[in-house]
């Protein structure tokens, strides 16, 4: 599992590096005003739906049935072709609605934008450009599931790199477009086409025969649809919460959507590298073990995932909360993205950091149920967690603004992950965490936090005196050399020699 995790995480890291480069260019060009808000809205709406479908939900609904048919010599190819037919039909209908009724769609998903709001008119134009991206990503999700069924993870993990490269290319060619926002929007849709081509080639090379059949409701397809809805909601819990943040942020002052976006980009980095990657690798592994009746193997796999999430997530959350302001400034504060916007994003990031460990763990915990064909239990837990999540969003947003939305998201993820963990333990899906090792990890994390707090101001001052132009980057590096070794030692001791029961 760790080898496959390394492949997915490594390619995800490369994608995120290009993604940060893209966001640096976007922040400098668009800043945090109405134009930036319009683009972020047009980009995030199809991207949220893409994340709901592609990041685990489609695999959870499709892979168990497809793998079972493949193993038993059943009509796996016919089943896959039927599912693809339904995907294309649903997306074409949705695309037609989005292109012809864009204003209505925007009113539904961004009700805070009034008819006279200048952001709304531009957002409608940009959404019409970006929405075909969703159709492409649905096909990518399908092809990725086929590849994952054969333990081929590289192409799927590398595909998002094309999004960043295409957007960087169109941003470079922005003088050829009516504006920078339009250039970025075109890059989004072009990247969707490029990702479909990449995965289609990878599937062909893997010996997977691709075909599409007219939509029909065979017994296998009906089972797929029964699983898909709950799987989308459960596996995409974080994306649903962040989508709710996007919708509610339209009621907040101009710039709120943009500052949320840049904070979310940093927040999603460890989630993509660890949480999503673990869930991607864990789901087919548990699915295969479930087919063999290997209960001990399934429990050990989930235990390993839980330990990795805790050992990496806890120190990352502390560093994100304590150094997030420096990271936002170093990465994004330039051009139109000023000091006020950087401070707002850093505050939001600190609020997101409080829920990082639960957010990392959710994908693995959900995979423990989905791999067994159980999509109802995670959905039930999600519905229970949604009550405090939404209640806190409505209560905190008027007081704390966008940071209140992020704080409510963290609380909601903590409740959701907690419910999943309790249910996993009661059903024998997971073992108890070793208390002594957890205490040691907490102790080394506390030492690291104390070192960071004590050295933050002196290092900043020394870096500014020695290198005024690169003070933030220099201070971040110097602090990393102090804080990270302490935590790395604690995390290695936490994992060293441990074996799941």
From TrEMBL:
The source's domain of life comes to Bacteria
Q: How does it sit in the membrane?
A: Multi-pass membrane protein
Pathway field of the UniProt record reads: Cell wall biogenesis; peptidoglycan biosynthesis
Q: Which CDD domains match?
A: MATE_MurJ_like
Transmembrane region(s) = 51-71, 83-109, 129-147, 154-174, 180-210, 231-254, 266-284, 305-324, 344-366, 378-396, 402-424, 436-459, 471-495
Protein name (record):
Probable lipid II flippase MurJ
Gene Ontology cellular component annotations, sorted alphabetically: plasma membrane
Q: Does the entry feature the keyword Cell inner membrane, yes or no? A: yes
Which UniProt key words apply to this protein? Answer: Cell inner membrane, Cell membrane, Cell shape, Cell wall biogenesis/degradation, Membrane, Peptidoglycan synthesis, Transmembrane, Transmembrane helix, Transport
Cellular compartments annotated: Cell inner membrane; Cell membrane
GO biological process terms held by the UniProt record: cell wall organization; lipid translocation; peptidoglycan biosynthetic process; regulation of cell shape
Function as written in the Swiss-Prot or TrEMBL entry: Involved in peptidoglycan biosynthesis. Transports lipid-linked peptidoglycan precursors from the inner to the outer leaflet of the cytoplasmic membrane.
Species of the source: Rhodovulum visakhapatnamense
Provide the family line.
Belongs to the MurJ/MviN family.
Q: Which molecular function GO terms apply here?
A: lipid-linked peptidoglycan transporter activity
Q: Which InterPro entries match?
A: Lipid_II_flippase_MurJ/MviN, MurJ
Q: What broad class describes the main subcellular location of this protein?
A: membrane
């Amino acid at each position: 599992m760790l080898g496959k995790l390394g492949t997915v995480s490594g390619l995800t890291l490369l994608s995120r590096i290009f993604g940060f480069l893209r966001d640096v260019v976007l922040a400098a060009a668009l800043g945090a005003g109405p134009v930036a808000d319009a683009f972020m809205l047009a980009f995030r709406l199809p991207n949220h739906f893409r994340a709901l479908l592609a990041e685990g939900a489609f695999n959870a609904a499709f892979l168990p049935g497809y793998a079972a048919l493949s193993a038993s010599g059943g009509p796996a190819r016919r089943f896959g072709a039927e599912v693809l037919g339904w995907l294309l039909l649903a997306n074409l209908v949705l695309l037609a609605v989005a292109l012809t009724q864009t204003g209505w769609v925007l009113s539904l998903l961004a009700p805070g934008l009034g008819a006279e709001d200048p952001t709304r008119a531009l957002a409608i134009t940009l959404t019409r450009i970006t929405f075909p991206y969703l159709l492409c990503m649905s096909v990518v999700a399908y092809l990725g599931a086929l590849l994952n069924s054969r333990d081929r993870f590289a192409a799927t993990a590398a595909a998002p790199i094309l999004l960043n490269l295409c957007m960087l290319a169109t941003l470079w060619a922005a003088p050829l477009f009516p504006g920078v926002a339009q250039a970025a929007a075109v890059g989004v849709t072009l990247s969707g086409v490029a990702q479909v081509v990449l995965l289609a080639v990878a599937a062909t090379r893997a010996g997977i025969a691709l075909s599409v059949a007219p939509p029909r409701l065979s017994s296998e397809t009906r089972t797929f649809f029964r699983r898909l809805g709950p799987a989308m909601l459960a596996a995409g819990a974080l994306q649903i919460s962040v989508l709710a943040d996007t919708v509610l942020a339209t009621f907040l002052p101009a710039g709120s959507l943009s500052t949320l976006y840049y904070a979310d980009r940093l927040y999603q980095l460890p989630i993509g590298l660890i949480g999503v990657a673990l869930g991607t690798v864990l789901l087919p592994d548990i699915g295969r073990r479930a087919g063999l009746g290997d209960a001990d193997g399934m429990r050990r796999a989930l235990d390993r995932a839980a330990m990795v999430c805790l050992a990496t997530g806890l120190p990352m959350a502390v560093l994100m909360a304590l150094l997030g302001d420096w990271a936002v400034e170093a990465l994004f504060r330039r051009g139109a993205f000023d000091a006020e916007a950087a401070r707002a994003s850093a505050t939001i990031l600190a609020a997101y950091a409080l829920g990082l460990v639960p957010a990392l763990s959710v994908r693995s915990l959900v995979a423990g149920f989905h791999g067994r064909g159980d999509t109802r239990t995670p959905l039930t837990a999600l519905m229970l967690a949604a009550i405090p999540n939404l209640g806190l969003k409505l209560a905190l947003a008027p007081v704390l603004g966008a940071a209140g939305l992020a704080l409510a998201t963290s609380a909601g993820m903590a409740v959701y992950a907690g419910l999943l963990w309790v249910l996993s333990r009661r059903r024998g899906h997971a073992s108890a965490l070793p208390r002594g090792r957890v205490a040691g990890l907490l102790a080394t994390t506390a030492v690291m936090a104390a070192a960071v707090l004590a050295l933050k101001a002196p290092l900043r001052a020394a870096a500014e005196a020695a290198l005024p132009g690169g003070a933030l980057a220099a201070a971040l590096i110097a602090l990393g050399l102090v804080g990270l070794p302490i935590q790395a030692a604690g995390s290695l001791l936490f994992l060293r020699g441990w074996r799941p029961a």
